[in-house]
Specification:
Layout lengths: L5 H18 L12 H11 L4 H14 L3 H6 L2 H8 L6 H17 L7 H4 L7 H12 L8 H10 L8 H13 L16 H30 L17 H5 L15 E11 L3 E6 L10 E2 L18 E2 L3 E4 L3 E11 L3 H4 L5 E5 H4 L6 H12 L1
Parallel strand pairs: 1-6
Antiparallel strand pairs: 2-3, 2-7, 4-6, 5-6
Length: about 375
């Protein structure tokens, strides 16, 4: 990868900043303030998830947990219930653990540097840098999936953006940051302190606009499938655009065959309530309420497979595998007795879908409730 000279780097950053201020996103509910809490919450939710999906979840979380202390004090089960449907549930567990650590170790105040933020649960290098940039104006580089795509295309960087290529991208991302305050010369003297503060504020504003601009470009113009190069402020110097290679970059990961798993779900109901089971804290849907699994537990409950009504099978896709679900309906008379087992509970059908259940469970419950 060629070294980017200072003039080219400055021009790249200036174009991103100008475009963001004119055409970028400015009306998202976590924008406009410097409170790190909503910024952190949004950045965690936006990991691997689009803005339009995140918006209602963010609003519900802020309405229920208005501060990091409120989130830290809540039981994990309540956090998972609000998160249900957003996916990647390890993020919710890390969110809760991070809130507690901020309260217990930092007095409820988020660290002010990307390096310290990255020590918190669930915060990688790029997420920590985004929070530090937006909340504190720190000159820190981000490198999420959208930014990798912008840089790989603009500079025609070959290779899957992991390992050695990712390391080179980090160096490039740092070299492209808007210039920091001038560290040379005498900063003392009468009348200089106010000027220095104003200059530092301008740099911080540039960092915020640049960071948001890179995110916005990747999300709105430099999209994976159909990049809108005609509207891109970087098109004139984009090597992929010049070479007609937008569809080739970034280099895609080799295709992998998605494994398939199978699960048997038991939908036990007395017509008014349904039996649910708390899943283990780790693994898929960790900590959520779900339907009991497996036919081997039927004899313990005094039930027979002959009493089960097979429902249409369905599939649910995860990142690395597909889950084939075989659901069975079983109508029982004494559901509360089954709920006495550890981890089990019975909830009214009308409430179960809002209790923090995985999406396919919510669909099944909706079908049952609808008759």
């Amino acid at each position: 990868m060629d070294v980017i000279n200072a003039a080219a780097a400055s021009d790249f950053a200036d174009r991103v900043v100008r475009w963001q201020r004119l055409s970028g996103r400015h009306d998202l509910p976590w924008q406009g303030g410097r409170d790190p809490y909503p910024i952190w919450l949004s950045e965690i939710m936006l990991q691997q998830t689009q803005v339009r999906t995140v918006l209602p979840y963010f609003q519900r979380f802020m309405a229920r947990f208005s501060t990091v202390k409120a989130l830290a004090a809540a039981p994990l089960e309540e956090v998972l219930a609000l998160w249900a449907g957003l996916g990647y549930y390890a993020r919710a567990r890390n969110l809760h653990a991070c809130a507690r650590q901020v309260v217990e170790r930092h007095g409820g105040i988020f660290p002010r540097t990307a390096a310290k933020l990255a020590e918190l649960p669930g915060l990688g290098r790029s997420t920590a840098a985004a929070i530090a940039a937006f909340a504190y104006g720190e000159r820190a580089a981000i490198l999420d999936g959208n930014v990798k795509r912008v840089l790989c295309r603009h500079f025609a960087i070959e290779g899957v953006p992991v390992g050695r290529v990712e390391k080179a991208l980090w160096s490039l991302a740092e070299s492209l940051l808007p210039a920091g305050p001038d560290s040379g010369g005498d900063r003392g003297g009468d009348g200089m302190e106010a000027d220095d503060v104003r200059a530092d504020d301008m740099v911080a504003d540039d960092i915020r606009a640049y960071t948001q601009g890179l995110m916005d470009l990747g999300a709105s113009l430099c999209q994976r499938g159909k990049p809108r190069c005609a509207s891109c402020p970087l098109a004139a110097t984009c090597l992929a655009h010049q070479q007609g290679r937008e569809a080739c970059l970034p280099t895609p990961k080799p295709a992998q065959t998605r494994r398939q798993r199978e699960a048997v779900w038991l939908l036990l109901t007395d017509g008014r309530q349904v039996l649910l089971e708390r899943r283990p804290p780790v693994g898929i849907w960790g900590g959520l309420l779900a339907l009991p699994e497996g036919l081997d537990r039927l004899p313990r409950w005094g039930l027979s497979a002959l009493e089960l009504e097979p429902l249409p099978p369905r599939e649910h896709a995860f990142t690395h595998f597909r889950l084939k679900i075989r659901p069975f309906l079983c109508r029982v008379a004494a559901l509360p007795l089954l709920a006495g087992e550890p981890g089990m509970c019975c909830l009214p059908l009308a409430e179960a879908r809002a209790a923090g259940v995985p999406a396919p469970v919510a669909v099944l419950l909706g079908e049952l409730e609808g008759g």
